[in-house]
Amino acid sequence: MLMYTDGLLHRTGDPTDRAFARLHAAAAGVPRALRHDPGAVADHVLRAVLPDGADSAQSREDVVLLAARFE
To answer: Cα-flanking dihedrals φ and ψ of residue 5, to 5°?
Structure first.
């Protein structure tokens, strides 16, 4: 399960629908080997959605991404 703030979408600089599509593609594209580790999933998604990094000083948008795995 991924939960995120709208800052993640705003930080991309894309329109919301395009940013959401980018997020969806990143989540769907997590390699199978990483899917057991929520931290690795979050890292993969953040790198895919925000190539410049979540800590980029160019934006004032807060970014929160929570990845959880339930068995």
So the answer is: -90, 160
